[in-house]
Design goal:
alpha/beta, Rossmann fold, N-(1-d-carboxylethyl)-l-norvaline Dehydrogenase, domain 2, eight-stranded mixed beta sheet, 15 helices, about 15% strand, globular
Length: about 325
């Protein structure tokens, strides 16, 4: 296929899906939007906003066709932007019974496919034989709450097809969204997972009352660890200080909007994993990403002490205070 985007559908109903819908509809003035719940759709139509997320962001309902049938929306639209939590992706994709090889698939999912230990683009390519030049990702430091408030945000579109990446950028750019292209699809996907893991670490240290001085050391080491992993698994020329890598890491590690940092802070304050998840009522992708990345790194064998410590805390019930003390001894 060429770089054409055609009509666009959003797959997902959370805060980031709502933010991306807001961005795209400003250009296209028409989108399809898949949500599982008919009740949510009915309330959305009634009030003009997503009833569960970013409720201050209002939409012109006449510009949206809502769907609860995943196969029907895939049939009706050329470009599908998947924006759902990674733990739910596999089940949703299993419901697809029609051919999607000719569709443009964009993922804005900052997680891996649990149980498969594959990035979303890899999994979709393997499952549906979608060519890589029709697969794209959206990355970068981009809390949905700030997009909703139209605060300046920088996004990166990763795709092996440069023309397609540029056309995707064109439906994202605005006076508050800047967008650029990259061919580092795998690197961006892995970085977007790792930054969530490291944000949990930052939150745990915050909960344990480590100060800003140490947080700077933690995140500096996290970025070095990220670079080592990316260089090992996808050795191409990249600049780790670019906003899609370091920028996304910093905002996720420091911002109060970061659910992964919030999740970590609760654990640092003594919450159990389960109680923290229940109280948050939102998915912290880094919890699932930690296990996937740890398993992937068994083969890669990169030196990743922060990842290992988070795995020990989240999955092996290691003592939180002692594990962080051991971690600090590994830092430069």
């Amino acid at each position: 296929m060429n770089g054409s985007i055609g009509n666009v559908a959003i797959i997902g109903s959370g805060s980031w899906a709502t933010a991306i819908a807001k961005i795209v509809i400003e250009h296209t003035h028409y989108i399809g939007w898949y949500m599982r719940s008919q009740e949510k759709i009915s309330n959305f139509k009634l009030y003009g906003h997503n009833p569960g997320y970013l409720t201050s962001t209002h939409f012109n309902i006449d510009e949206i066709d809502f769907y609860t049938d995943i196969n029907k929306i895939i049939n009706d639209f050329d470009t599908l932007i998947f924006v759902i939590p990674s733990p739910y992706l596999k089940d949703l994709l299993d419901k697809i019974t029609i051919n999607i090889k000719d569709k443009n698939i964009i993922t804005a999912i900052k997680g891996l496919v649990p149980g498969e230990n594959l990035t979303c683009s890899e999994y979709i390519h393997q499952k549906f034989k979608v060519p890589y030049e029709q697969l794209a990702i959206i990355g970068g430091p981009s809390h949905s709450e700030e997009v909703a408030m139209e605060r300046l945000t920088y996004l990166t579109v990763g795709c092996s097809n440069e023309k397609k990446a540029k056309n995707i950028c064109n439906i994202l750019r605005s006076n508050y969204i800047k967008a650029k292209t990259s061919n580092d699809v795998l690197g961006i996907e892995y970085a977007s997972v790792l930054k969530n893991v490291y944000a949990i670490a930052a939150g745990i240290c915050d909960g344990l009352k480590y100060g800003d001085n140490f947080q700077a050391v933690l995140l500096s080491n996290a970025i070095a660890e990220m670079e080592l992993f990316l260089t090992t698994i996808a050795p191409i020329n990249r600049t780790i200080s670019d906003s899609v890598y370091m920028g996304d890491q910093l905002v996720t590690g420091y911002s109060n909007f970061s659910r992964n940092r919030t999740f970590g802070t609760m654990i640092g304050r003594g919450y159990s994993i389960k109680s923290a998840q229940i109280e948050m009522q939102m998915i912290a992708e880094g919890y699932y990403g930690t296990k996937c990345m740890y398993e992937i790194n068994k083969d890669i064998q990169a030196k990743m002490p922060i990842l290992s410590s988070m795995y020990n805390i989240l999955y092996k019930k290691a003592d939180v205070k002692q594990e962080i003390i051991l971690l600090t001894d590994s830092f430069r």
